[in-house]
Write a structure and sequence with these properties.
Blueprint (H helix, E strand, L loop, with lengths): L7 H4 L12 H14 L10 H27 L3 H20 L6 H13 L1 H15 L2
Helix pairs in contact: 3-4, 3-5, 3-6, 5-6
Length: about 130
Amino acid sequence: MTFTPKLTATLSAIALGLAAPVAAQQAQQTQQTQQAQEPAIAAEEVTDAQVDAFVQAAIAVEEVRGIYDPQIEAAADQNARQDLMNEANAEARKAVEDVQGMTPAEYLAIGQAAREDDALNSRIVAEYRSKTGR
């Protein structure tokens, strides 16, 4: 039996505020606020074009994380970490907005739907693997 990995870290990157563990509590509050604002989408309503755009956005957010995570971890103090997290969030949001056919609200809604629906998650994982080879 094979298990399809959940892309939780990638799917939640914006909702979690690209937060390092030291900011987990703040990130949880941010996620709850954003979830209250995000439009719900039923997994079966997500089109192939939306899956494609979502994966493009997830890859772009992953690139932002790759740049900022080491800087956040190496920051001298909490204020520097917070400044970097804010900068990373802005860059991640811009990365999602730059993907044609995807908004940050849609990204969050599709990510939430994928966490709750294995079929949608499998579609996203398959598309992600086809684009990245991972």
